[in-house]
Amino acid sequence: MIRNATPADVPVIHEMVRELAEYEKALHEARASEEQLREALFGERPAAYAHIAETAEGEVVGFALWFLNFSTWRGVHGIYLEDLYVRPSRRGGGHGKALLASLARICVERGYERLEWSVLDWNEPSINFYRSLGAQPQDEWTVYRLTDGALAELGG
Fold first, then answer.
1. Could you tell me the CA-to-CA distances from 145 to 148, 150, 151 in Å, in that order?
2. Using CA atoms, how far apart are residues 119 and 128, in angstroms rounded to an integer?
3. Which of 49, 106, 139, 152 would suit a FRET pair with 8, their CA atoms being 20 to 30 Å apart?
4. Is the dihedral of CA 98, 102, 104, 109 positive or negative?
5. What is the C-alpha separation between 18 and 98, in angstroms, rounded?
C-alpha cells in the first residue's frame, strides 16, 4: 500500500535516508536531522513531499521523497524524485514500482509532463529496474553541484 507520509513517519524516513546513504557509500554526507526533515515535509512552507510504502500489516518498507520542478521548454511543472528507497529485505515485492506509479499518477492527474530522478552509474539493479518501467537515461546531461566551500565562496 502507498500512502502520503505523516509527521509520525519522520523518524522512519530519517532512518531509511541513512540506510540509503550507506548503500550509496555516502553516509558521511547524510547530515539531515529528523527536525529538518519534519520542517521540509510538514512545516509552514513544505519544500518536499513523501509517500510511504507499507505492507498489509502496516510495516513501513520504503519511501519516495520528491518535490516540484519546472520545465521552461514544456511550460509546466514536473516531479523530481530525490530519493526512492525500499528496504533490501522487501525488494522485489512491487513496492518501488508502486511508489513510482503513485508519482506518475500525480503527474498525469495534474498535467505535469516529467518525472525525473538521478541514479548512480554503478547501481545496476536500480538502472535495470528503471529501464524495465520504460524510463530512459539522459546520457547527454551531466549533473553539476556546488556544496560546502565552493558554494560559500561563490555565494559569499
1. 10, 9, 9
2. 11
3. 106
4. positive
5. 22
- Catalytically annotated residues: 130
Buried b (16+ CB within 10 A) or exposed e, 60-95: bbbbbbbeeeeeeeeeebbbbbebbbbbeebeeeeb
* pTM of the predicted structure, to 2 decimals: 0.93
**From CA 112, how far away is CA 81, in angstroms rounded?**
13
Rounded Cα–Cα distance for residues 63 and 84 (Å): 6
Task: Please list the residues that pair with 71 across neighbouring strands.
Answer: 76
Alpha helices (H) in 78-123, listed in sequence order: 95-110
CA-based Rg of the chain, rounded to a whole angstrom?
16
| Phi and psi angles of residue 140, each rounded to the nearest 5 degrees, phi first | -80, -5
Classify residue 100 by burial, with Cβ atoms within 10 Å: 0-12, 13-18, 19+. buried
Pairing between β-strand 115-117 and β-strand 76-86 as defined by DSSP bridges: parallel
The full 3-state SS of 16-40, as one line of letters, equals HHHHHHHHCCCHHHCCCCHHHHHHH
